[in-house]
Write a sequence for this structure.
């Protein structure tokens, strides 16, 4: 057991911190206010080789381990949760399933340019009537000669409209229930594929969250990802990776808010004393520190388990659950400690609190994580 | 093109603390970074490499073995090779002895076309080592570069001066010192970081650098630092209020007392 980061992981942390502070932080408040997708940041991340951190070198990635990727997301989320989820949805939810289930041709055609940052990726599972009950897919795919014809719609899709490649799930055989779902690689610009309404959200406001609409959308037969009927398995496998990404985003948000608060407590004077001299607030800070560190240990252990090649659904669910709850509770307390300033847009705390909420909802709500955890306990 | 970049690992803080007894920097607990001007020098070399196929960039540093991480960072930015000159015998060297050691190592590397250094390090602020290396090697030097253009074997450099800039031309080989206005250093890449650890940082000890022992270390250094100290904070000062004769009289008396009048 070793709790020290490797030399490589330490340098990745140093790199990501300096990138986040110099390139991402200055935009965070503005893009939140205007709901503007930070295309320039995506281009900078691509130029610096950050769009495929944990993807093997032969497929255009950096060949780094999952913990390096987690550290990268954490550093991004410390200053801007939106940028972190753009990166996480691209890497975990689009590159991830291509790496795990793609054919060699699919990897060369899609994964390599995605990992090099030449293309941006997204993942389409959720539908208006298939949220937590994700097996209740209404989008259909019918084989017609050399093509599948897709019909239906997806909602709440991160990177929607901005991405070039979408991993889309659809029913190929309704009678088989979740064993009748298949996964497809859909390119922007395919005939019959369009982007619907864009969501206006509480947090991560600059991430593009949209509907995907399929009207007799023609997808080449060779763009079936994995085997027919294996879509639900692919989705669940992908979400294990996604949950590690969201947990990293959550712990980054918590850490970012906490660092701001520790600094503020040393500066702010009330009743002739710094806030850091009040025991009531000291104890709040101590509790927050324990929550952050213990959540992070769950997260890092999930990342290590992922790289070990063993099943890690349990660890991913525990990390996602605990990190998301920590993000929400820590940011709420940090706003409280900042008082009126915390509630004001002059300070980043209210944004961090708004951003934290989504981590308890997407890629499986906290309740879903508890279903996964208890399912592992009582199977 | 064979490019060499001399870098130094320095403590990352503007408020470096000094050991009052020895006058040396206290490095414990202070994060270390590549000296900022040296990163501009490295970026300049990497850009020349990008534009001239077949070029190589070698980073050279003298310092303790902990400087390994700075060498890895330089490799992760795109340098091809890293040499760390490290040995107890080199400790305590002043700028003259340091430049002698580095110049000797550079002679050993040989057939370089361009040597790039940062203008000065944020810990010592002497700006002496770069120019002294050029003197030791007997090659041309151009300091304070804010622009470098290479045309065959001729380099044209804009030197930043206090009240303008000067355009200087030189034939290779040449030593150039970089300032922050020269460029914006690139980031490492995650892939570069992993590749950097697949390479080896060469450690050159005393036996690997053919130097005269009498000219290195504390004994070989002509400079003696008598005392290093942080200047004492000045007092708050005294404010006199009023526009009457008495106040003026008090002011004149106080100034005379301090021999300012």
């Amino acid at each position: 057991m070793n709790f020290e980061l490797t030399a490589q992981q330490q340098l990745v942390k140093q790199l990501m911190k300096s990138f986040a502070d110099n390139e991402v932080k200055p935009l965070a408040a503005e893009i939140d206010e205007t709901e503007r997708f930070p295309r320039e940041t995506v281009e900078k991340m691509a130029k610096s080789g950050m769009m495929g951190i944990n993807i093997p070198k032969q497929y255009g990635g950096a060949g780094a381990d999952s913990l390096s990727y987690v550290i990268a997301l954490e550093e991004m989320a410390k200053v801007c949760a939106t940028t972190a989820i753009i990166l996480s949805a691209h890497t975990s939810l689009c590159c991830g399933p291509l790496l795990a289930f793609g054919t060699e041709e699919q990897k060369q055609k899609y994964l390599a340019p995605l990992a090099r940052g030449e293309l941006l990726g997204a993942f389409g599972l959720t539908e208006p009537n298939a949220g937590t009950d994700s097996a209740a897919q209404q989008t259909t795919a019918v084989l017609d000669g050399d093509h599948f014809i897709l019909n239906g719609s997806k909602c709440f899709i991160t990177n929607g409209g901005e991405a070039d490649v979408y991993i889309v799930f659809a029913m190929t055989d309704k009678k088989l229930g979740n064993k009748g779902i298949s996964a497809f690689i859909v390119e922007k610009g395919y005939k019959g594929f369009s982007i619907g309404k864009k969501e206006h959200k509480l947090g991560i406001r600059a991430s593009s969250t949209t509907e995907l609409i399929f009207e007799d959308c023609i997808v080449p037969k060779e763009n079936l990802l994995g085997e027919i009927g294996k879509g639900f398995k692919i989705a669940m496998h992908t979400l294990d990776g996604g949950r590690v990404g969201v947990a990293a985003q959550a712990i980054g948000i918590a850490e970012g808010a906490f660092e701001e608060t520790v600094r503020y407590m040393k500066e702010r004077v009330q009743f002739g004393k710094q806030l850091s001299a009040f025991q009531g607030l000291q104890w709040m800070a101590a509790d927050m520190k324990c929550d952050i560190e213990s959540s992070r240990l769950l997260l890092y252990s999930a990342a290590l388990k992922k790289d070990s090649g063993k099943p890690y659904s349990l660890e991913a669910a525990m990390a996602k659950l605990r990190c998301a709850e920590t993000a929400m509770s820590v940011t709420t307390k940090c706003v409280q400690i900042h008082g009126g300033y915390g509630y004001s847009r002059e300070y980043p705390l209210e944004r961090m609190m708004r951003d934290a909420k989504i981590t308890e909802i997407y890629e499986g709500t906290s309740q879903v994580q508890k279903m996964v955890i208890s399912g592992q306990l009582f199977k | 093109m064979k490019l060499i970049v001399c870098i130094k690992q320095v403590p990352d803080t503007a408020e470096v603390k000094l050991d009052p007894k020895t006058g040396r920097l206290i490095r414990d607990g202070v994060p270390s970074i590549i000296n900022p001007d040296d990163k501009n020098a490295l970026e300049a070399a990497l850009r020349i490499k990008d534009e001239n196929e077949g070029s190589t960039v070698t980073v050279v540093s003298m310092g303790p073995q902990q400087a390994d991480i700075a060498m890895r960072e330089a490799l992760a930015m795109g340098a091809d090779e890293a040499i760390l000159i490290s040995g107890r015998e080199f400790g305590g060297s002043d700028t003259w002895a340091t430049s002698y050691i580095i110049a000797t190592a550079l002679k050993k590397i040989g057939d370089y076309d361009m040597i790039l250094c940062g203008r000065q390090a944020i810990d010592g602020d002497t700006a002496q080592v770069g120019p002294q290396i050029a003197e030791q090697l007997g090659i041309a030097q151009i300091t304070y570069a804010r622009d470098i253009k290479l045309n065959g074997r001729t380099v044209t450099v804009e030197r930043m001066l206090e009240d303008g800039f000067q355009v200087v031309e030189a034939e290779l080989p040449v030593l150039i010192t970089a300032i922050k206005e020269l460029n914006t250093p690139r980031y490492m890449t995650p892939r570069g970081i992993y590749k950097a650890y697949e390479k080896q940082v060469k450690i050159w000890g005393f036996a690997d650098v053919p130097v005269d022992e009498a000219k290195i270390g504390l004994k070989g250094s002509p400079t003696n630092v008598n005392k290093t100290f942080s200047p004492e904070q000045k007092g708050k000062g005294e404010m006199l209020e009023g526009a009457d004769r008495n106040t003026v009289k008090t002011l004149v008396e106080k100034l005379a007392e301090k021999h300012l009048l």
Observations:
- Chain B has one domain: 2-215.
- DSSP finds six helices and eleven strands in chain B.
